Amino acid sequence: MLTRRMRLGLGLAAVLLVAAACGDADADSAAVAPETAAVEAGAPTTTITEASLEDPDSDLAEGVATADPIEVRAVDYAFEGLPETVPAGTILTLVNESSVELHELVAIRLPDDETRSVDELVQLPPEELAAFFPLVETVTIAPPEEAGFPIEGIGMLEKPGRYLVICAIPTGANPDEYMAAAAESEGGPPDVPGGPPHLAMGMYGQTLVEE
Q1: How many domains are there within the chain?
Q2: Confidence band (pLDDT; 50, 70, 90) for 159?
Q3: Higher-confidence residue: 27 or 59?
Q4: How far apart are CA 28 and CA 190, in angstroms?
Q5: The domain containing residue 48 runs over which residues?
Q6: Which of 29-38, 45-54, 147-156 shows the lowest mean pLDDT across its residues?
Q7: What is the dihedral of CA 111, 112, 115, 118, to 10 degrees?
Q8: Among candidate residues 54, 7, 22, 28, the one with its CA nearest the CA of residue 182
Q9: What is the CATH number of the domain that holds 69?
Q10: What's the Cα-to-Cα distance from 191 to each of 40, 102, 143, 183, rounded to whole Å?
């Protein structure tokens, strides 16, 4: 099973490729979505239910939800229903309404002293964008026309602060090929045909988490 440190290392290389692709929308991108390789590589997945939130023996008991889960819808290429402000402890779920694209929701808690807009942040050079990746709080992935499942964290925005929310799946990547390649990856991004990452197409946003 992949450890959190191993998955973060995988994602760091992914973000470098994602940011590079943003600078060249005509070039094919093989950027891996953060943590996606863990899905088929044996990392545990969790289905969030009311019962599991209340079960003290559940993995979800590590965090306590303070509000009802909020459903975010993934379309080509945007998040719909992403809340502007939520209380700490809110869980975001993901439903993919695309019939062709694999989508994910990656929530990154930004430093308290970070004042740049999310529009500015997604345009940063690769090494600067990559510096935010260790701050990933949770990652949820959803195949086409399916509900998503968390592969990092439980979908909870637990810490107060401003969150950058992105989808970094390569545009046009075949979902089955992408997932299979990610499962066989040994530390690098899956080698699958695809265009710029979805965040380069505008699939990003922000959520403010309040105490």
Answers
A1: 1
A2: very high
A3: 59
A4: 13
A5: 4-210
A6: 29-38
A7: 50
A8: 7
A9: 2.60.40.420
A10: 15, 16, 18, 11
Condensed to tens digits (0 to 9), the pLDDT of residues 105-114 reads 999 999 999 9
158: its two tokens: 């637990």
Does the predicted model carry a pTM greater than 0.90?
no
